[in-house]
Design a protein that fits this description.
The complex is a heterodimer of chains A (362) and B (632). Chain A has 362 residues and is mainly α. Chain A has helices at 2-5, 10-31, 39-59, 62-67, 69-86, 106-123, 133-151, 156-160, 162-173, 177-195, 200-210, 220-233, 244-247, 259-291, 296-320, 338-356, and strands at 88-90, 93-99, 102-105. The chains are: A mainly alpha (362), B alpha+beta (632).
């Protein structure tokens, strides 16, 4: 029995479970007495199920997944198209498909495929070879297709999470400074044009990020209320189920996207420091697995996952304190939501798969 | 060949495979990534530090404002009672509609103003000016229909900003009765809020704007309570705290006597002018009427612009309290004090006669007497009774302006009485110093002649005239008039006159009423009424320049009674009354009402005094005497 679990990253697992515990506790507190009040035990079920998936994933050789990435990619694209056509509509966007009573958010699982895809493409390149324009266009195109499909749902936040995977991979693979500068310039030029293609609510979010007081009753409301909640926590917090911003409905979705805001209100700066330190160690431990990976596929996989987690934490927590626009992406391991929990555990399974095979070629 | 090539290719691939498998090539880049992670977490932590540690009060107050909705519990103002405890000003419980700023949406305003019959522009203006106030009252005295409409539309989906609170509407007597003395209340203005004496007041507060309401605002106003409710983001009430009750304002008993006030109001019906009745011994103001008047009920709370403009724009100035603000020439009412001045200084004695031929020439100017045929040889007593102008031209000429001023100032000319009402104006007494100070010119002796009959620059208000006569009638003991009961009488000035001089002037004033004088219409049975008429020419006043054709003299009459130990002094000013005798019946009515009431009260007191012993008697009778035949 012990042999089955030997070699797993126990340190990472402890950090993961601590963060999940924080999440469950906060979901319980924030939804106490509301119509979502059974979300906390659903979250426990997902975490337990996620642990199982993680173990299964860790037993699969990641090389076999990397080699089969194109069929997986095809299936993902197909599912995204299915989501668009038959998906269930919630809050004005079509993100979920219903299978046997469960709803799946395909865009969450697409992250894993994109991580594998980037790992496959970049590890196929030869030694000393640097990324050229053709590579950028090909890889950009491959990642761009699911991104556009997710953006059309519309779910700008999730589609943006694919970018750090791509960027991290490219930077790891190495690229000339000249390219970097040109890309940066291009982004600067494209951004204002892209702004016109945003939905009105997305424009509002962006505008209210720059100046939340511009429309305190409308788009700026969430940011203002979230900042009030965080500030209301003070040094020691208001106590579990005692946050007035959380419990009187001033915080939007206090158990999903704004869970860290309600956590900060009830546990204060001290709680925030503890949680952020855990996230810091969690990401650093993923990176550590990249450092001991036996090959580039492993490095790209771990680094892709690390970059994705960092992006999630940065954008979600940054949004809570008003330092990032409201993008609507969950906080990994803490936010309530099955698909996100499962996809994170699958990624942790991948990290363990890389770890378990570190000594194969040395 | 092909085989060799494929073999070589495979070797190349396999050799590069090894290189490719070397993960150490990216080690440096992973370190860079780790630094990025550190930077991101420092960035995030600094944001929490700024919000939670550096500035926690700001946000906890914001959260407090979010969740606690406080509505005022309005305190009723104190009632105003007359000297006998009868209610003059009361409060009526009503309901007012207020709008909460937090839920306020500007696009709701047209619908709300339409449903409640409010002017949209006025409402929008009010909202615009509300600043940081949490609530604003937009309509008082909601009708039953309006209440029903509000209750059915204040759910979160319609107009959640609306809230109904209990409020108090000030109930004033009808038809502007005693309106000037009492004053009125209104919403505190922005300019008032800037003044230091209103430091404890808040925007939207109702305060006294004039009269007693203003002067005694701090007594009358209560302390508002507060109802605190925990609300959620939808404005739904979650928890109600124990309310802080309102402390009602204190009732105020004023010196006015509703019986006298009513008589004076009736007597002034349809006229312009003022009536003041005083108790000269204490300074109690028994009645104060000013006409034209206004309805203070229209001012309670939030007056509409149209109503305000109608009243404020009236050329006859109904808001002006003529009793304390109409500064007019005293005319012949000036003569008794001047006669006394003549006697006291010795320029005349009580035997001095002057000849009146219907006029006289002084310093090259001819000054007419009001009686064209002249009064012939006339003494001081008859000159007062007949109001002979020539006699007083001569007295004034002998006295000179400064000695006239010295005595007039004893009676209060040139100053305020200091009554406890806002905006009293100062009377004017010209003198050489006065002219030098105000006009940088020396005084011409010719000017003294018109001052001698109460014309020229000399002015006085009805209240000041009543005070002047009251003090004169008490042999030189001038008391400060006041409006509120219980205040200690305060002496303005005490002078001592020679008995025979004082009696001579009193004789003259007595003859005005009782011996064929100009005030004979004021005669009362059993009471010796003394007084003096006056006619103030308007030639010197502003109205003369207004070009109005019906320019007529103001009539004065001032009387006190009884002659010995006077209890009441009454002044009537009848603007454009033409002849002085037109003011006499007004004063007579008030005096009569005073003495009738006094008599009635004395009779009641003696009746109850006699009725008491029989009431006690049955107690003293043994039961056996009463029920003797029942006991067997």
């Amino acid at each position: 029995m012990a042999r089955v679990f030997r070699g797993l990253d126990w340190y990472l697992l402890v950090l993961t479970l601590l963060l999940c515990a924080f999440g469950v506790l906060q979901i319980y507190s924030a939804t106490h007495g509301t119509k979502w009040q059974d979300a906390w035990w659903k979250q426990i079920v997902f975490v337990v199920f996620g642990l199982g998936l993680m173990w299964v994933m860790s037993q699969i050789d990641y090389h076999s997944l990397v080699s089969r990435v194109f069929p997986l990619y095809g299936v993902t694209i197909a599912l995204l198209i299915v989501t668009m056509t038959v998906g269930s509509r919630v809050f004005g966007s079509t993100r979920w498909i219903r299978v046997a009573g469960f709803t799946f958010q395909v865009s969450e699982f697409a992250k894993i495929v994109i991580i594998l895809l980037v790992a496959r493409y970049l590890s196929d390149m030869r030694h000393g070879q640097r990324i050229v324009w053709q590579d950028l266009i090909k890889l950009g195109g491959l990642v761009g297709v699911p991104m556009l499909l997710v953006m059309k749902q519309p779910d700008l936040g999730t589609s943006l999470t694919y970018i750090p995977i791509l960027v991290c991979g490219i930077l790891m693979a190495g690229m000339r400074i000249k390219y970097l500068l040109i890309i940066a310039l291009a982004i600067l030029l494209v951004l204002p044009i892209g702004y016109h293609f945003l939905k009105p609510y997305q424009k509002d979010r962006l505008a209210s990020f720059i100046d939340p007081e511009r429309d305190p009753k409308g788009a700026g409301f969430q940011v203002i209320q979230s900042r009030i909640a965080v500030g209301n926590g003070g040094m020691w917090g208001r106590g579990v189920t005692q946050g007035s911003q959380t419990h009187l409905g001033f915080l939007p979705v206090p158990h999903t996207d704004f869970i860290f805001s309600s956590f900060a209100e009830e546990h204060g700066f001290v709680g925030v420091v503890v949680a952020l330190v855990l996230y810091f160690l969690f990401i650093m431990q993923i990176v550590q697995n990249a450092q001991i990976a036996s090959d580039r596929e492993g490095v790209y996989i771990c680094m892709g996952i690390g970059a994705l987690m960092l992006f999630h934490v940065l954008v979600n927590v940054g949004m809570v304190v008003g330092r990032m626009p409201v993008a609507g992406i969950p906080l990994p391991l803490m936010s309530s939501g099955g698909s996100n929990v499962l996809s994170v555990f699958l990624m942790l399974g991948l990290v363990n798969s890389v770890r378990l095979r570190r000594s194969v070629t040395t | 060949m092909a085989l060799v090539e494929s073999q070589r290719e495979r070797e190349e691939v396999s050799s590069e495979q090894l290189l490719r498998d070397n993960p150490k090539a990216v080690a440096g880049k992973i370190v860079v990534f780790q630094y990025v992670v550190v930077a991101v977490f420092i960035f995030l932590l600094s944001a929490f530090w700024a919000l939670q540690v550096q500035n926690p009060d700001y946000y906890s107050e914001a959260a407090e404002r979010n969740r606690v909705k406080s509505t005022p519990i309005l305190a009723p103002r104190g009632k105003i009672l007359d000297r006998d405890g009868r209610v003059i000003v009361d409060n009526k419980a009503t309901y007012s509609l207020l709008l909460n700023r937090d839920q306020l949406k500007f696009e709701h305003l047209p619908a709300i103003s339409e449903a409640l019959g409010l002017d949209f522009n006025e409402l929008a203006d009010k909202i615009h000016k509300m600043g940081s106030r949490p609530q604003i009252v937009i309509k008082d005295e909601l009708t039953r229909d309006e209440m029903a409409w509000v209750e059915s539309h204040r759910d979160p989906s319609a107009f959640p900003e609306m809230e109904v609170i209990k409020s108090w509407r000030r109930l004033y007597p009808q038809d502007g009765y005693a309106a000037h003395a009492i004053g009125y209340v209104g919403e505190i203005s922005e300019s008032e809020l800037d003044q230091p004496q209103f430091i404890d007041y808040h925007p939207g507060d109702i305060i006294g704007k004039d009269g007693i309401e203003k002067e005694y605002d701090s007594t009358l106003r209560g302390i508002d309570g507060e109802r605190r409710v925990l609300v959620d983001s939808m404005g739904r009430e979650r928890q109600v705290d124990k309310p802080k009750d309102a402390t009602p304002g204190k009732d105020l008993t004023v010196t006015l006597d509703l019986d006298l006030q009513s008589v004076a109001e009736l007597a002034m019906d349809g006229k312009r002018g003022a009536v003041v009745a005083l108790d000269p011994r204490s300074g109690d103001v028994l009645a104060m009427v000013s006409r034209p008047t206004f309805d203070p009920n229209k001012f309670t709370g939030r007056i509409s612009r149209a109503d305000w403009q109608a009243i404020a724009g009236d050329p006859y100035k109904p808001l002006m309290n003529r009793a304390i603000q109409a500064e007019l020439a005293p005319g012949s009412t000036f003569k008794p004090m001047e006669g006394l001045a003549g006697l006291e200084t010795g320029v005349i004695d009580d035997e001095t006669d002057f000849h009146c031929a219907g006029g006289a020439t002084f310093y090259g100017h001819y000054f007419a007497c009001h009686l064209k045929g002249g009064h012939g040889n006339i003494s001081l007593r008859r000159a007062i009774a007949q109001s002979c102008d020539v006699y007083f031209y001569n007295v004034g000429n002998r006295l000179g302006i400064d000695r006239i001023a010295q005595y007039a100032e004893m009676a209060g000319y040139g100053s305020k009485t200091g009554i406890d009402l806002p905006n009293e104006r100062e009377s004017t007494m010209p003198s050489t110093r006065w002219k030098m100070r105000n006009f940088r010119q020396k005084w011409y002796a010719g000017e003294t002649i018109s001052v001698a009959i109460g014309q020229g620059a000399v002015t006085i208000s009805p209240l000041q005239l009543a005070t002047a006569f009251g003090g004169l009638a008490l042999d030189g003991r001038w008391m400060r008039p006041h409006m509120v009961r219980g205040a200690k009488p305060s002496l303005i000035r005490q002078e001592h006159f020679q008995r025979k001089n004082f009696e001579a002037v009193m004789d003259g004033m007595c003859e005005v009423v009782n011996n064929g004088g100009t005030g004979r219409a004021a005669v009362l049975p059993n009471i010796t009424v003394c007084g003096k008429t006056g006619t103030a020419q308007l030639a010197s006043t502003q109205l003369a320049h207004s070009g109005r054709k019906n320019l007529q003299n103001n009539a004065w009459f001032v009387a006190f009674a009884p002659r010995e130990n006077p209890e009441i002094v009454v002044v009537a000013l009848f603007e454009n009354g033409v002849e002085s005798y037109t003011a006499v019946p007004i004063v007579r009515d008030v005096l009569k009402a005073y003495f009738d009431k006094k008599q009635r009260l004395q009779k009641e007191r003696s009746l109850t005094a006699r009725a008491r012993p029989p009431l006690l008697l049955p107690v003293a009778i043994p039961a056996t005497l009463l029920f003797g035949d029942v006991v067997h």
